[in-house]
Write a structure and sequence with these properties.
This protein has helices at residues 2-27, 47-56, 63-72, 92-100, 117-126, 132-139, 142-147, 172-188, 191-197, 201-214, 221-234, 241-244, 256-259, 283-290, 314-330; strands at residues 37-41, 82-86, 106-110, 163-167, 299-302, 308-311. By secondary structure, it is mainly α. The longest helix has 26 residues, at 2-27.
Length: 333
């Protein structure tokens, strides 16, 4: 009897130890490899195959334990297919929660309004979708542009700024295609108004890109648009600083030397619109290009606070420039 009693105690202790080990393992993160891991879950595959792949990738330690736990609690039927990126160590229970999340298989990336093509490439690369050169080469590849029915000059201006959700293994071609399709979706809503104005789609995008770079406050977009429309109407150069430095790594306020550099985009040296967009404008800037405010302004200057002072004549403008230059000098450190 004593032997039986000792055996039962040993079994109880062994079971308790196994239970504790299982509980500990399920609640303790694995040592994720440097650089993290990406694990794909195929549609309809057995969860034990997914668990084995998670173990191989270093996301969990014991695939069999996790598989048994998921089956016992009925969680294996709710795992969603897709690509999952693991950037930090998670416990197996946390991993299971990620695999059942309706959004975890997609990675969100936000492209701010006014981003240039180079900045978009860098933002997508920083989000983990590939190297910036992959996106830049593709955005200027004649074959890809032809397939997209995009301008031969490239995709600058046609990658719509927005928040996107992509699977981790989405290719650069699929990402840029989605961004161009979003652009067409949004500009399609402006088609009737654009036709009323007589502007071509290209003109709308080019002017919208300049407005995007120039307008410091949302409520000034239509005013900035009015200045440029008024100048175009009388044949006056746009004289937009962002066009003069487009394509160069310029920082801060452009100098007189910057504004004198020869470039087909430099609207200080060349009349009319620049030959192409200087950034990727958002919906509001595109709308402003089609809806200039009914004002006679021809000039504007920064107030040094993100807004601008608008003027009808050069004399008024020069007074405003003097005033705000003096204010800037007064507040300089």
């Amino acid at each position: 009897m004593r032997r039986w009693g000792a055996g039962i105690v040993a079994l109880v202790l062994l079971g308790a130890a196994a239970a504790y080990w299982s509980w500990y393992d399920l609640h303790t993160p694995a040592a994720l490899p440097p650089g993290g891991a990406v694990v794909s879950v195929a549609t309809g595959e057995p969860f034990r195959s997914t668990a084995a792949r998670l173990q191989t990738a270093g996301v969990i330690r014991h695939a069999r334990l996790v598989s048994l736990w998921a089956r016992w609690h009925g969680l294996d039927h709710f795992v969603r297919s897709g690509d999952y990126r693991f950037d930090r160590p998670l416990s197996p229970l946390e991993v299971l929660a990620v695999l059942r999340s309706p959004t975890a298989a997609l990675h969100r990336v936000t492209i701010p309004e006014g981003s240039t093509l180079h900045q978009v490439a860098e933002q997508l690369a920083a989000a983990g979708f590939g190297g910036p050169d992959q996106f830049l080469c593709l955005a200027n590849d004649p074959a890809f542009l032809a397939r997209m029915d995009a301008p031969a000059s490239g995709l600058e201006g046609y990658l719509f700024p927005d928040t996107y959700s992509f699977a981790w293994r989405t290719t650069p071609e699929q990402i840029l295609t989605a961004m161009v399709e979003r652009f067409r979706e949004q500009t399609g809503l402006l088609q009737a108004r654009r036709l009323d104005t007589g502007m071509s789609g290209e003109q709308m995008v080019i002017l919208g890109s300049v407005i995007e770079k120039e307008a410091g406050a949302a409520n000034e977009r239509e005013l900035v648009s009015a200045v440029f429309h008024n100048r175009l109407q009388i044949g006056m150069p746009l004289q937009s600083d962002p066009t003069a430095v487009y394509g160069r790594d310029a920082h801060g306020k452009p100098t007189a030397a910057d504004l004198a550099v020869e470039s087909p985009y430099n609207t200080y040296l060349h009349g009319g619109l620049p030959p192409g967009p200087i950034c990727n404008p958002g919906r509001a800037a595109l709308e402003a290009a089609l809806n200039p405010a009914p004002v006679p302004y021809l000039y504007f200057v920064s107030r040094n606070d993100g807004t601008h002072a608008f003027s009808r004549t050069l004399e008024e403008h020069n007074r405003a420039v003097t005033q705000f230059q003096r204010d800037a000098a007064r507040h300089a450190p």
